[in-house]
Amino acid sequence: MKLNNIILLDRDPKSRWTVEYNANTIDSILPSTDGELRSGPSSPEPSEETNTGGEPASLLLPALSHPHIHLDKPYLLTTNIQHHPTHAHQTSYPDYTDLTPKTGSFSEALSFTGQAKARYTPADLYLRGSQLIATSLTQGVTSCRAFVELDHVTGTTCLEAAVQLKESFGGKFELQICAFAQDPVFSSDHGEENRRILEDTLLNYAGAVEAVGSTPYVESDREAGLQNIKWAIEMALQHDLHLDFHLDYNLGDSEPMVWDVIRLLNEAEWTSKTKPGKTIVLGHCSRLTMFTNKEMKELATQIHDSGLPIHFLGLPTSDLFMMGRPDDDGEESKGAYRPRGTLQIPSMIRDYGLNGCLGVNNVGNAFTPWGTGDPLALASLGVGIYQAGTSDDAKVLLECVSQGARRAIGLETGGAEERESSGDLLWEGRKGDLLLIKNNEWIGCPGHLGLKVPARQRISVKDVVWDPPEIRLRTVLK
């Protein structure tokens, strides 16, 4: 595939480049000649030669990634499949309309999602999951870590749907399955059963599952939470899996468990017992937003000294919705004070040298009843959340939803030395999917207005992050 008249976000925005892309690898990046700028047909679809001659130049980006998304829970609030004209004959799809949030609280979201799980069917899980993946592809996403819950309610139904989706989208979408314990595994009436189901699944579905995850804060007390962490580490080591924790999801004064995670990983000798490329992701972690500079430096020092491949994952769309709600104890608690908490990912990367990325978490359910799951829209939201208004900030945010997200889940492992030497987002020899962003020549106005307005051109990383291009202008190249 030969791409002509290309803008590269790390180069002079006035320069134009020709990129040779074959077998999922960038073979060469050379300055475009005048002939290459003018010759050849224009085509919005990937082909042997994609040329923007006669049209505005296009931008080339790394493909986007979802490092943390719940494959079994999208669109619970918006589906209404029984009313879809092409599915009118179907009667097996569950109705979730009664589970629309009433208070929006975290406890309500847990309760409503638990009720929804009891209604899941294989057809329903497959349909909602396929809608999520198909929508993600149109947004420029070509990979994800997909959490699927395993417990006494769902059994392996969610996992089986994920395996089917992985096969259906094979070659088009890289779906990494994370066997996930959302419910307690060391407390509650069903803890032991939940734990047994997940352990059996890791044995019976070896090869299909690539990561194991848990939620220590749902346990009944701190001791059970510590057991949860230790157990998840043991499962990851025993089955050679990536490790992923939903962790420290609060803004209270409880002792953060991130210190325990580091300690228990060291005690388990993670760095010597795992194969290269196995990562550890810590998601949410809103309690860390209350850390002092001294505490953040100590956290970074412990991680750097241990050599643990820890990546922090910010999930702003869920965190901003859930965090800072008033206590439900009368009018006195409902003042104007509304603290919010989501990991300061750009600062963690820039100021403390930590690994960080961003994810959308949920789309259209009680945990996150807003947003489309578009990673570029998430990066754009980050400009305001993190007060990240420079071009360098925009580059960090773009990496957080593309290559940084892939590194967090162990998918972006090659070419690090070449990238470090070039300092570019894209470089010769880089392997991986690409995203082509088209520039329009004109803004589309209704014909009867008789107006023809020149469109603003996206020529730099800030243009893409600050003003995410419409979905129809994005083309995935594989």
Descriptive overview:
The strands form three sheets. An eight-stranded parallel sheet has the order 6-7-8-9-10-11-12-13. It has two domains: 2-62 and 418-477, Urease, subunit C, domain 1 (Roll); 64-400, Metal-dependent hydrolases (TIM Barrel, Alpha-Beta Barrel), CATH 3.20.20.140. 34% of the residues lie in helices and 18% in strands. Mean pLDDT is 90; it is low at 38-49. The chain is α/β, with parallel strands linked by helices and 478 residues long. Helix 4 links the parallel strand 7 and strand 8 (174-181). Helix 3 (122-139) packs across helix 4, helix 6 (222-239) crosses helix 7 and helix 12 (375-385) packs across helix 13. The chain has helices at residues 34-38, 106-117, 122-139, 157-168, 191-204, 222-239, 258-267, 270-273, 293-306, 316-322, 345-352, 375-385, 391-400, 403-408, 416-422, 461-466, and strands at residues 2-8, 17-22, 25-31, 49-50, 58-62, 64-70, 141-149, 174-181, 211-214, 242-247, 280-284, 310-314, 355-358, 434-437, 442-443, 453-454, 474-477. This is Amidohydrolase-related domain-containing protein.
